[in-house]
Specification:
Helix content of chain A: 25-40%
Number of strands of chain A: 13
Number of domains of chain B: 2
Oligomer: heterodimer
Number of domains of chain A: 3
CATH superfamily of the largest domain in chain B: Beta-grasp domain
CATH architecture of the largest domain in chain A: 2-Layer Sandwich
Strand order of the largest sheet of chain A: 4-5-10-6-7
Strand order of the largest sheet of chain B: 2-1-5-3-4
Number of strands of chain B: 5
Largest interface: A-B, 35 and 37 residues
Chain lengths: 285, 186
Amino acid sequence: MFPAKFAYASPQSLQEALGLLADPDAKILAGGHSLLPLMKLRLAQPKLLVDIGRIPGLSYVRREDGVLAIGAMTTYRQIQMSPEVHQAAPVLADAAHEVGDPQVRAKGTLAGALAHADPAGDLPAVALALGGAIRAVGSGGERDIDLDGFFVDMLTTSLQEREIIREVRLKIQPTGAGAAYQKFDQPASHYALTGVCAVITLQNGSIASARIGVTGVGPKAYRPTAVEQALVGTRAEEEAVKAAVQTVADGIDVQGDIHASPEYRAHLARVFTRRAVLEAAQRAS
Amino acid sequence: MAQAQTREPGLHSVTVTVNGTRYSRDVEPRQLLVYFIREQLGLTGTHVGCDTSQCGSCTILVDGIAVKSCTILAVQADGAEIKTIEGYAEPNGKLHPIQQAFWEEHGLQCGFCTPGMVIAIDQLLRDNPTPTEGEVRRGLDGNLCRCTGYQNIVKSALSAGRKLRGEEPFEKPDVAMSEPATAGAH
C-alpha cells in the first residue's frame, strides 16, 4: 500500500516548520504511526508532509516545578524508560506500555497521539487524569492550552491550523496519590474498547480527591466530573466505589462498532472505572 | 542529513548504511522504507506481511532500535544506520545466537515471520537480558506467526537469551544436527 503522492520537507527549526504550514494541505509528521497508516489507506491525503523529526531538541522528558515537560518528538519507548516519568507519574509509564507493541512504541510519540485525538487512544485518558497543558507554538508565538479544553471531538483538538505542539506538560502525581490505568483492549489492534485512568488521594480510608480520564467510550476522551465529585468522601471499597461510578457514561455519545455495542461499552466504562479507582486507591498512601 | 529540503514533489536523495554498506538512492517521498530496502537495495530478507504495522514481518533496526519498516518513509531514514536480517549471520555463514536458537528449537515452519521475530528478540534481549517466559510473550506482541503457535518461538527466545548470557553453549550439545549450522550455503 502506498500513500497518494505528496511533497516532503524536513525543516530544521519550528519557525521554518510553521512557515511550511502556510500550505492548507500540509500535515505535520512526527512518529508517523497514526498518520502514515491513514495515508496508506488514503483516508488522509495531505499535499505536503512537514517532518518535524529532524528539528533538534524536541526529544526529552524534564521534571520542572510540579510538571513533567515532554518534548514533541518523545516516543512512548523513551517515556517508558524515563526515570523522571517513573518517579513523577508512574501511571504514564504504565499506560505508555499499553500502546500498540514494542516496535510501534519505538516510533510513536505522546504529542502526536494527543494531537491525533484518536477516540480509542490510551494516552488522552492519562493526560486528562493527570491534568496539565499542551504548549503549542504558532505564528503569533507560544500558548498553553489547558488539557481540559484540548480534546474537542473525534480526531479534533483545539490546536489551530498553523500550530505545532512543542511540549506536553503533565502535572506530576500529587504526594501520596495513587494512580492506575485499566484497559479492556481489542486484542488485534490493542486500541482501547475502554480505558480508564484514575488519580486518587485518600484521607482516613476515604477518597479525598479523584481525577479520572476515560477513553474508548465516547467520540473523544473525557473526564466524568460527576463521578469525580461522587467519589469524594466515598470509602475506597468495592461496593461504595461501584455505586459512585455508575454515571460514568451518562450524557456521553457512547460509540458502537463491530467490536462493542454502545450498551456494552457503557458497561465496560463502569466496570473499568471501578477497577481503576480501586487499584489507584490501593496505591495511594 | 536533511538534504530533503525541497517543496517540489520530485525525488529526494536518501543515504543509509545497511549492514555496514552505504547506499544512496533517489526516492519518491511516499516510498516506504521496507520497499526501499527490498526493491531499491535488493535486500529481500525483510518481509512485507500485513503492510499495516501489525504483523512485524518488516521489523528492522534503525539506529539500533527495532521498528516496523512498513510504517516509516524512506526519506525519514535518511542518514540512518540500519540492520536487517542479512546482517545477523557472520560473513562465513555462522549463525547469530538467536538464529542458532531458532534452528535448534524449531522456532519456524514457513519462515516468513522469522526475520522480524529474530530482530524483535534481539531488541527484547538487549532491553532485558534475562526475560521470563511471560516477558518474552509480551515482548513479541508486535510479531505475528501463523504456523508455530508461538511455543517454539518463545523457547527459541529463551534459549537465545541463555546463549547470549553464556549459560548455554552456542551449539546445544544434545542436538546432533546432520547439517552444519550455516546460512547461505546453498
